[in-house]
Amino acid sequence: MNKYEIMFIVKATMESDEVKKTAEALKKIITSSKCNVVEAKELGEKKLAYPIKKELNGYYFVFQVEATKEVIAEFDRKAQLDENILRHLIIKLDEE
Q1: Domain span including residue 48
Q2: pLDDT, tens digit, for every residue of 4-56?
Q3: Structural contact between residues 14 and 40, judged by C-beta atoms closer than 8 angstroms
Q4: Contact yes or no for 72/4 (Cβ under 8 A)
């Protein structure tokens, strides 16, 4: 398994419970495939540098994960389809 860092921004105009449910749903994609979420950080609501889909603020989350490339591909696909996700970024970390 490879190590990845995943950052995503959830719409801030939603209820806080819905924001957490969206983040948990994305986390479940990783954990349901016997891969690990090493660290999950909720960075909170921040003002965006520029409007994205007419949103001015977003909730930021960062996950450190150990996963296979197939699981990461599935995460990427579902994050693109989810209308509550404004942006996401997946970075493969170097092996130490």
Answers
A1: 2-92
A2: 999 999 999 999 899 999 999 999 999 998 899 999 999 999 999 999 999 99
A3: no
A4: yes
CATH number of the domain enclosing 41:
3.30.70.60
Instruction: Outline where 5-85 has alpha helix (H).
Output: 16-31, 69-81
Whether residue 3 contacts residue 41, with contact meaning beta carbons closer than 8 Å, is answered with no
The whole-angstrom separation of Cα 43 and Cα 59 is: 7
Global pTM reads: 0.90
- Contact assessment for residue 13 and residue 55, using Cβ atoms and an 8 Å cutoff: yes
30 near 75, Cβ under 8 Å?
yes
Task: Domain count for the chain, please give it.
Answer: 1
